[in-house]
Write a structure and sequence with these properties.
This protein is an alpha+beta fold. It is built from 10 helices and 5 strands. It has a 5-stranded mixed β-sheet, with helices on both faces. Helix 6 packs antiparallel against helix 7. The protein is elongated. The protein starts with 11 loop residues before the first helix and ends with a helix. GO terms for molecular function: metal ion binding; metallopeptidase activity.
């Protein structure tokens, strides 16, 4: 079915204008991004096919250029456009974290960290430096690779926190395995960092673990 043969009110663009983006399915939103279909499929059908092949939006968005371009209807230009959209999303969420008080907008923090860390095939350990108004000063990747007690250097974290004049920190890292539950090593690292930062009167507000669609908070679990 050609998209122009679908009733106007049911077409993704018109639907978004009339009802807002929340009313659209993943396939309909993706169809707006794709703009056109391919031979035998309109834009919505192509979007549905891509989601079915990739299982989740995250898999599609985090695909490498070579993997992305293997899909019918996708090429380098669409890959560049998508990466630009994702980067804009990251910057928007970071701006919200910098503008808003973190405790009054916890979803913004979770969303921002999730979009930064979800889908990575290697471990990344981040710190968010927070001022005394609970606003984001800066975020920084501290370590890459296998995260364990030996790879985390509390002295370096303390130096960075003092450099940015942070009142508090939020830590976050990802589990590429997809299992979000904190390990004993995660708990040990958090305690080491808490103890080191306490010596210079800097609090650790939370440690979040991102794994697939899950995000686990140490603070909500009572681990901090």
């Amino acid at each position: 079915m050609q998209l122009h043969t679908i009733p106007a009110h049911a077409r993704p663009r018109e639907k978004l204008l009339n009802l807002g983006p929340d009313a659209l399915s993943d396939a309909e939103l993706l169809a707006i991004f794709l703009r056109t279909g391919v031979s035998g499929m309109n834009a919505v059908e192509l979007a549905q096919s891509l989601l079915k092949q990739n299982h989740t939006l995250s898999n599609l968005f985090n695909a490498s250029l070579s993997d992305f371009c293997t899909h019918k209807g996708l090429g380098e230009a669409k890959y560049v456009q998508l990466q630009a959209v994702l980067e804009l999303s990251k910057r928007y969420l970071k701006e919200r974290c910098q503008r808003d008080t973190l405790f009054s907008s916890p979803d913004a923090v979770t969303d921002y960290l999730s979009i930064q860390l979800r889908g990575l095939d290697h471990e990344v350990f981040m710190a968010l430096y927070v001022d005394n108004q609970n606003r984001l000063i800066k975020d920084e990747v501290l370590f890459r690779g296998t995260i364990n007690a030996a790879s985390v250097y509390p002295r370096e974290v303390v130096k960075a926190a003092l450099k940015y004049n942070a009142a508090s920190l939020i830590f976050a890292h990802n589990h590429p395995s997809g299992v979000a539950e904190p390990s004993q090593a995660d708990k040990l690292i958090t305690k080491k960092l808490q103890n080191a930062l306490a010596l210079v009167d800097i609090n650790v507000l939370d440690h979040l673990i991102v794994a697939g669609e899950q995000c686990i908070s140490f603070a909500q679990r009572g681990l901090i």
